[in-house]
Amino acid sequence: PRGSLGRTLRMQSRSHTTPAAVMAWGADVKKRGTQLKSHHHRQFLKLDLDIEANPLESKFSSALLDLMQKEELAAAQHKHELVDALAKKVFAGLVAETKRHCDLQHAANQTKWTSLLEQQVQERRAFFHEAFSAVNTKFDAKQSIKTNGLTLDEAYEREERRLYLDSYGNYAKYELFNLSHAFGLQLSRVDAEWGVYEQQMQNDYEAQRATILGKARNASVADRKTGRQGPWKSKTEQTLLFNTAPVFSPDSGISSRRQSQAVESELANLDKMYAQAQARIAAQKKSAVRWIKRQEARMKIQVAAIASDRDLVHPYLVRASNDFDRFYAQVNAAVDAVRILAAKGSEKTTSAAGGWQPDDGGKGENSSQGTTRELDSSGEAGTIRSLAEEANKMRLGAVAVGQG
């Protein structure tokens, strides 16, 4: 036979290893493999937490801080054009200094990750070599991984790891999408809130303007009703007088001009206040949008730096995952191979002896009974036939999991 099954069969025929002993070996090395994997995972989490909790010190340069102060002073003095010019310089400085800091942090992280992960690779190799040397065979680090060589629990755990590795390896893709969506919502909220405020301000302006114009119209009507004409009769009464020449009353227009000038002054003052309020609101909105975009740029640079760390670590995690899957599958194959050989030996013994007989402690002279006694000397697994049936059930169940 070829492959690991053939090697195991040859190993069993040379060393006369019992099925119970191989099963005990398989359970032991799988348990130790799980312990090693858990230990490596704890080391990984510890370093990840240490890097996150102890970053390199970060502070802005004095030149950038000076630009920020000038920008704030210009905003307080309502010098909007100067604010826009300074804001561009501040944004460029923020981006450059944030990227420089993240690059330094990545270089420091890279040294730590490489040291730990290379150490874990060596520990895995040593463990796999030691585990298989106990049964006179070798671990095949290049053998393809077959899910039908895993138990149900191992296949489930493998799928769980696959999802984690996908999330870990595609961190930048998922996180940048989340950031873009979150900051997009913030900008939409700014537009909505400022839009409501601007509409309310416009409504107030129009209401005050209507009030001013309404007062002027009311004053004009009142003047006509009171008849500010002195002792002179009204033009209607004058036309009714006999033998009286038409009298043209003087009309200086002083009162109406004064009212018009007052209304125009009020309207001009209202328009000026409204224009100032609009400019102030536009500047506040622009400032809010500017700070949101600055935060977005800085966070995206940080995400890119973290993604660089994960691009380094991800291949190691995938390799470790595949190594342990390959290890468990080869251990399971070795145990199943011994069970199959034991089942074949049981069938030959049963055919020669006419049925399986209990072990007589070495008193019998029948060679077939001796073979049975050797294969089941530990008494832990019951009869050889039950071992074969159990192996077949496990193998069929693993195949079903792999196909599913």
Query: Structural class per helix/strand content?
Result: mainly alpha
* Overall 3D shape: elongated
Helix content: over 70%
Radius of gyration: 45 Å
Q: Which regions contain 5 or more consecutive residues with pLDDT less than 50?
A: 1-16, 226-233, 241-252, 352-392, 394-404
How much beta, percentage-wise?
Answer: under 5%
- Termini gap: 28 Å
- Rounded mean pLDDT is 77
Secondary structure: number of strands: 0
Spell the H/E element sequence. Answer: HHHHHHHHHH
Largest sheet: none
Helical segment count:
10
Summarize the structure.
With 404 residues, the chain is mainly α.
How are the secondary structure elements laid out?
Layout: H1 3-15, H2 19-53, H3 62-76, H4 80-133, H5 152-169, H6 171-226, H7 235-240, H8 254-353, H9 367-375, H10 384-403
Helix pairs in contact: 1-8, 2-4, 2-8, 3-4, 4-8, 5-8, 6-8, 8-9, 8-10
What features would you describe in this structure?
- By secondary structure, this protein is mostly helical.
- It has helices spanning 3-15, 19-53, 62-76, 80-133, 152-169, 171-226, 235-240, 254-353, 367-375, 384-403.
- Helix 2 (19-53) runs antiparallel to helix 8 and helix 4 (80-133) runs parallel beside helix 8 (254-353).
- The chain is elongated, with a radius of gyration of 45 Å.
- The two termini are 28 Å apart.
- 15% of the residues are buried.
